[in-house]
């Protein structure tokens, strides 16, 4: 008996050592994923900026009316082509964060990742070139997940490690979009995987740092750093009043924003007009706005930066521009064309903060120079209200602006906003999109699903016999992969490094993913 125990201990020690080597390989591969993602997602950002500047130059030149006709027809053809691409490859629709979460959870598999990645890249560039109010962050995240998927196949990583590379690629995509690696790893934890696995955090951060480095190399000047954020230095009680006011009004507006956006999405899908007519209506709106205020198109980021760096002091004019951007964003997102909602949400939150700040200036509570300070706080708080990712929102604004003076107020206002949105029962926008996706007929056809988890040292499953385990109802361990061999589960004692496949009902994936993965992980 003693000899058997000693032998088992020796085998276990060897597997723990081997596991460390495998982890080192995984971290190296995640760095490679970050580099590849940066080399794809950063040019995506560059092309979006290039075509936006080209379009702005064209409209600012005020060409004669007859030059608008061929351009309008060209852009209409582009939108029809992009909608055709989405019809052929439904997974490239929208931002891509819900799809990325679905792939990590195992709900979705990328059957043709390279072709879909190219289509997402092309579709996103063309949709924003036409002027739609969409963001670059969602497509960048999905592009990163495609790269993670491709590298996991090329490197032949274990099935339990595949999701780490998918998550690393997704985080690297956001880091490439904003040059914000820390916020990118938090987004994966809060919104995509929704689970704080140590390996995922490390691989995502490593990939994000590399991708963010590529982004900083191509875009050395961050326009958000040019925003002044001057603290009004209010007394403590006045500060608390201001923070509470911001949290309340942002929460209420966040509820309104979410409900109206979802309403637009439902109405758009219920309209039975042909796709080419829907694209015509959408382009008429985009083109009309381009003629009046071209900076509001393409997500509206340029308009936000303009307002944050000494913009208008007319409250009603800013209200009109914000509502125009809001409606335009709701229409653009409803179309299902490739493009995210992260940046348009930031823009709406910033403009809403500008409105509040201008009213406070009129009341004598703050001065004009403090408007941008309030705008930055409201940008992070509005992301909390709509996307419901407080850590990501707070760190992202601090990271991209470089203004640590907004970190403390963002924590306070963001925390209060999160609490108030819980009271208002605001469903996170990406969660709503994910739920809509998995409730489609294609997903309802799924009956059983297999989850792969990797056993970590000291976890609940470590050292347990498969027959002794009490898993949730209708969950069955169907295979244990060890040393490149598949073992029958009966009588197998699990050790670190084992890749365990658990079969369950497809409808239970979202409820059981976190509990089952937590059994195999240690903190």
Q: Report the sheet-strand fraction.
A: under 5%
Succession of helices and strands? HHHHHHHHHHHHHHHHHHEEEEH
- DSSP helix fraction: 55-70%
* Spatial shape: globular
Determine the N-to-C terminus distance. Answer: 32 Å
Query: Which stretches are low in confidence, meaning pLDDT under 50 for 5 or more residues running?
Result: 4-8
- The radius of gyration is 24 Å
Decide which structural class fits the backbone: mainly alpha
Number of discrete helical segments = 19
Instruction: Give the strand order, joined by hyphens, for the main sheet.
Output: 1-4-2-3
**Arithmetic mean of pLDDT:** 86
Biggest sheet: strands, sense, closure?
4 strands, antiparallel
> How many β-strand runs?
4
What does this structure look like?
It is a single chain. By secondary structure, this protein is mainly alpha-helical. Helix content is 68%, strand content 5%. The protein has 19 helices and 4 strands. It has helices at 2-60, 65-88, 97-105, 113-129, 137-154, 159-178, 181-192, 198-218, 236-270, 275-293, 301-308, 315-334, 342-362, 371-387, 390-401, 407-424, 429-438, 441-444, 509-520; strands spanning 448-454, 476-482, 485-487, 499-505. Helix 12 packs antiparallel against helix 13. It is globular and about 75 Å long. Mean pLDDT is 86; it is low at 4-8.
């Amino acid at each position: 008996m003693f000899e058997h125990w000693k032998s088992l201990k020796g085998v276990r020690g060897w597997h723990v050592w081997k596991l460390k080597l495998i982890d080192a390989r995984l971290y190296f591969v995640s760095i490679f994923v970050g580099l590849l993602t940066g080399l794809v997602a950063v040019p995506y950002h560059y092309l979006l900026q290039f075509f936006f500047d080209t379009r702005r130059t064209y409209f600012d030149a005020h060409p004669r009316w007859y030059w608008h006709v061929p351009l309008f027809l060209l852009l209409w053809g582009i939108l029809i082509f992009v909608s055709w691409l989405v019809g052929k490859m439904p997974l490239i629709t929208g931002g891509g964060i819900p799809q990325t979460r679905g792939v990590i959870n195992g709900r979705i598999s990328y059957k043709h990742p390279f072709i879909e990645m190219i289509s997402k890249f092309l579709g996103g560039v063309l949709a924003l070139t036409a002027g739609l109010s969409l963001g670059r962050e969602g497509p960048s995240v999905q592009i990163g997940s495609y790269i993670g998927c491709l590298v996991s196949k090329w490197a032949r990583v274990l099935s339990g490690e595949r999701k780490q590379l998918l998550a690393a690629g997704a985080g690297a995509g956001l880091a490439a979009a904003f040059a914000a690696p820390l916020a990118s790893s938090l987004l994966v934890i809060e919104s995509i995987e929704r689970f704080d696995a140590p390996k995922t955090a490390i691989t995502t951060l490593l990939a994000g740092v590399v991708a963010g480095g590529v982004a900083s190399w191509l875009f050395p000047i961050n326009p958000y750093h040019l925003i002044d954020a001057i603290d009004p230095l209010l007394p403590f009680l006045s500060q608390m009043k201001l923070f509470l006011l911001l949290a309340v009004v942002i929460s209420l507006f966040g509820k309104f924003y979410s409900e109206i956006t979802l309403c637009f999405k439902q109405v758009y899908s219920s309209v039975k007009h042909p796709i080419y007519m829907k694209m015509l209506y959408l382009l008429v709106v985009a083109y009309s706005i381009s003629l009046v205020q071209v900076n509001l198109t393409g997500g509206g980021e340029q308009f936000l930066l303009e307002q944050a760096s000494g913009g208008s002091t007319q409250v009603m004019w800013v209200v009109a521009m914000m509502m125009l951007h809001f409606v335009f964003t709701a229409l653009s997102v409803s179309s299902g064309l490739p493009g995210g909602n992260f940046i348009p949400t930031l823009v709406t939150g910033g403009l809403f903060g500008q409105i509040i700040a201008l009213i406070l200036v009129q009341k004598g509570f703050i001065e004009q120079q403090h408007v941008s300070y309030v705008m930055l706080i409201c940008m992070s708080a509005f992301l909390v209200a709509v996307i419901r990712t407080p850590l990501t929102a707070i760190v992202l604004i601090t990271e991209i602006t470089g203004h640590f003076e907004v970190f403390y107020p963002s924590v306070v206002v963001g925390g209060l906003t999160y609490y108030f949105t819980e009271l208002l029962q605001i469903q996170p926008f990406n969660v709503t999109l994910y739920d809509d996706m998995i409730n489609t007929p294609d997903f309802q056809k799924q009956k059983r699903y297999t989850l792969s988890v990797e056993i970590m040292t000291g976890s609940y499953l470590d050292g347990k016999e498969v027959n002794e385990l009490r898993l949730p109802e209708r969950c069955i361990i169907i295979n244990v992969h060890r040393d490149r061999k598949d073992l029958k589960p009966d009588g197998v004692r699990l050790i670190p490094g084992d890749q365990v496949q658990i079969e369950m009902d497809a409808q239970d994936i979202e409820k059981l993913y976190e509990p089952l993965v937590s059994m195999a992980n240690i903190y």
